[in-house]
């Protein structure tokens, strides 16, 4: 069970209680959070580790001392049953465990396609299949690089970096360059400037932030083979700037926690951004269906359904939730809207729950955001629905400005040049930043709920 170390006590307790976990390995920086909830969970064994525990002496002592006493990142805590990580390595005999392919390897927690946090049961077969699928897809593009370096800026509790960076590239003999705080872009750029890397994975907002840093040009991309974007829609403006700056196409992939996660990926040899998630991985079937489960035709948008060896066994102890998304024939309803063109290429349209309904017309936020991002004065953008007494909903655009002089009127005028009438934002709001998940995905839900306010203008 991979746990977000930044969880609040409430979130941590839910995950531990729901999973029934009996052993936890935790960094001492977060032990004070565990202390608040451990008595209400099934945890029997606690292993506490420190930041420098795997470093050689004396560097281990130095790092741990700095973390504890200089940076003061470790709060006081009391966990009487806890044992230090070093003690777990000092004795005992490894005990072999019989493992079947159908046994659960990970409970990977997700909001899923129905919103409630639950554990996706990923079996050893699921993960091994997705690892082999990804390896078959990636290897031809590596040009013989056997011991490369992959930049791992996404947290390893997230299914994207767990499977892609940790499992796949580690199996291929690559080194993971861990970036503990990718939000610290200056430090991130400094790290990338130290030596050439061979691959990088991330979300659209991460690539955008790197490109917008003044020192980005210091980085040597001459050895780069793999640039892979996933987790959220890749925007054309970002993809084109990345290719121009690095000489390597930023390739979009699609997946979800319930599929271990990869489903569709563009070839890494892609010449230029194509606004598609391209083709399913080997042994993966897809189907585009309407609300009644009827399969749709070419270029008709509907819910993307997936079947393959990487599809989860179900949700942990949630048969009622499992049956909502997984049918008896093994088809998973993803909750994403997609279409397949005449060439067989898959195009992701948007999340079903994020779709905006304007006077009966479907508006997909990804399309609006992608066009808005092509305005040179825009740094980041998100489109959400706003209630309207006449249209039911209208488009509300939330923007972080690159150009401080940018106005709502100028943005709406830009939208009129490339979007049909009902897709044009009715309201434009400017903010200093957009709410994001720890992985960097923009939280449209928070924008819809109006958790905070910005400077708003109406069309």
In short, what is this structure?
The protein has 459 residues and is of the alpha/beta class. It has 13 helices and 22 strands.
Description:
With 459 residues, this protein is an alpha/beta fold. It has three domains: 9-88, no CATH class; 122-350, Rossmann fold; 355-458, 2-Layer Sandwich (GMP Synthetase, Chain A, domain 3). Helix content is 26%, strand content 25%. The protein contains 13 helices and 22 strands. It has helices at 9-19, 31-37, 59-70, 85-88, 124-138, 159-171, 185-192, 204-211, 236-246, 319-325, 365-372, 408-416, 444-449, and strands at 23-27, 45-49, 82-84, 104-110, 118-123, 149-152, 175-178, 199-202, 226-229, 251-255, 262-265, 279-280, 285-289, 302-307, 332-340, 346-351, 356-358, 361-363, 378-388, 392-401, 427-430, 455-458. The protein has a seven-stranded mixed β-sheet with strand order 7-6-8-9-10-11-12, sandwiched between helices. A four-stranded antiparallel β-sheet has the order 13-14-15-16. A four-stranded mixed β-sheet has the order 19-20-21-22.
Blueprint (SSEs and pairs):
Elements: H1 9-19, E1 23-27, H2 31-37, E2 45-49, H3 59-70, E3 82-84, H4 85-88, E4 104-110, E5 118-123, H5 124-138, E6 149-152, H6 159-171, E7 175-178, H7 185-192, E8 199-202, H8 204-211, E9 226-229, H9 236-246, E10 251-255, E11 262-265, E12 279-280, E13 285-289, E14 302-307, H10 319-325, E15 332-340, E16 346-351, E17 356-358, E18 361-363, H11 365-372, E19 378-388, E20 392-401, H12 408-416, E21 427-430, H13 444-449, E22 455-458
Parallel strand pairs: 1-2, 2-3, 6-7, 6-8, 8-9, 9-10, 20-21
Antiparallel strand pairs: 4-5, 10-11, 11-12, 13-14, 14-15, 15-16, 17-18, 19-20, 21-22
């Amino acid at each position: 069970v991979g746990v977000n170390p930044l969880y609040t006590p409430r979130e941590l307790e839910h995950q531990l209680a729901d999973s029934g976990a009996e052993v936890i390995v935790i960094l001492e920086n977060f032990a004070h959070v565990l202390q608040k909830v451990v008595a209400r969970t099934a945890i029997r064994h606690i292993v506490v580790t420190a930041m420098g525990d795997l470093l050689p002496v004396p560097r281990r002592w130095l790092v741990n001392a700095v973390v504890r006493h200089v940076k003061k990142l470790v709060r006081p805590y009391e966990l009487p049953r806890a044992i230090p990580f070093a003690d777990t390595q000092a004795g005992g005999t490894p005990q072999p465990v019989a493992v079947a392919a159908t046994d659960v390897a990970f409970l990977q927690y997700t909001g899923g396609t129905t919103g409630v946090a639950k554990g996706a049961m990923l079996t050893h077969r699921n993960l091994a299949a997705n690892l082999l699928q990804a390896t078959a897809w990636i290897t031809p593009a590596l040009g013989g690089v056997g011991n490369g370096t992959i930049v791992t800026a996404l947290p390893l509790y997230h299914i994207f970096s767990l499977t892609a960076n940790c499992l796949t590239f580690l199996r291929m003999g690559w080194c993971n360059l861990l970036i503990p705080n990718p939000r610290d872009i200056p430090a991130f750029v400094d790290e990338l400037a130290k030596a050439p890397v061979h691959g990088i994975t991330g979300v659209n907002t991460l690539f955008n932030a790197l490109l917008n840093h003044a020192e980005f040009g210091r980085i040597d991309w001459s050895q780069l083979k793999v640039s892979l974007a996933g987790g959220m829609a890749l925007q054309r403006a970002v993809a084109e700037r990345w290719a121009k700056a690095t000489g390597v196409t930023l390739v979009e992939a699609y997946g979800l926690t319930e599929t271990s996660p990869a489903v569709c990926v563009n070839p890494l040899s892609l010449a230029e951004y194509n606004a598609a998630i391209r083709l399913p991985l080997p042994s993966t079937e897809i189907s585009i269906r309407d609300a009644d489960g009827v399969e749709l035709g070419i270029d008709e948008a509907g819910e993307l359904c997936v079947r393959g060896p990487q599809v989860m066994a179900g949700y942990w102890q949630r048969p009622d939730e499992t049956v909502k998304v997984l049918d008896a024939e093994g088809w998973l309803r993803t909750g994403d809207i997609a279409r397949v063109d005449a060439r067989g290429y898959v195009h992701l349209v948007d999340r079903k729950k994020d779709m905006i309904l304007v006077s009966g017309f479907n508006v997909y936020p990804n399309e609006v955001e992608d066009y808005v991002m092509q305005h040179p004065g825009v740094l980041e953008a998100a489109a959400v629905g706003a209630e309207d007494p006449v249209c039911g909903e209208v488009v509300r655009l939330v923007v972080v400005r690159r150009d401080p002089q940018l106005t709502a009127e100028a943005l709406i005028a830009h939208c009129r040049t490339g979007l049909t009438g009902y897709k044009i934002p009715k309201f434009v709001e400017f903010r200093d930043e957009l709410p994001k998940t720890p992985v960097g995905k923009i939280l449209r839900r928070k924008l819809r709920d109006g958790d905070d306010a910005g400077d708003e203008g109406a069309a």
